[in-house]
Amino acid sequence: MAEIRFYHLQRQTLEQALPQLMAKVYETGQNAVVKLPGKGLMETVDKVLWDFDPASFIPHDKEGCQDPSEQPIYLTTGDDNPNGAKILVLIDAVKCPDMGAYDRCLYMFDGRDEGIVAEARADWKAFKEMGVEMSYWQQREQGGWEQKA
């Protein structure tokens, strides 16, 4: 199963933090699938990835696009992996039945939503019981991430 990195959003919103992580993924030359809990948030993330920094470019597209296999970053609400990604990004405790198809999972969750935090804790416990390699990252006061576990 994939190595799972839990990213606890406390100081920034998903819309602020995700583009920075996706820029790093893109810089490595790897593909990613970003699974979101709903189409509304998928549309928001799509726009944010285009607009977040005028000096940078994060090529991506979303489910329903013409050439999903050509997208370095693919946004979806489903379980498909049309771009052969090895990095899976799960947003707000969405589930993926085939995490073994990926090398790494970035599990991002909103620390301001108690329901999502409870689901993330339950997922952490379940993955730990399965012996999955995991780490926990918190946002630093001045930005960036710090590994806490």
Layout: helices, strands, pairs:
Layout: E1 3-9, H1 14-27, E2 32-35, H2 39-51, E3 60-62, E4 73-76, E5 87-91, E6 104-110, H3 114-129, E7 134-139, E8 145-147
Parallel strand pairs: 1-6, 1-7, 2-4, 2-5, 3-4, 5-6
Antiparallel strand pairs: 7-8
Helix pairs in contact: 1-2
Summing up helix and strand content along with how strands pair, one would put the structural category as alpha/beta
Succession of helices and strands: EHEHEEEEHEE
Could you give the count of β-strands? 8
Estimate what percentage of residues fall within beta strands: 25-35%
Span of the ends, CA to CA: 19 Å
Instruction: Please tell me how large the radius of gyration is.
Output: 14 Å
Low-confidence runs (pLDDT<50, min 5 residues)? none
Q: What proportion of the residues is helical, as a percent range? A: 25-40%
**Total number of helical segments?**
3
The largest sheet is: 8 strands, mixed
Broad shape: globular
Give the quaternary arrangement of the chains: single chain
Widest sheet, order of strands: 3-4-2-5-6-1-7-8
Give the averaged pLDDT, no decimals.
94
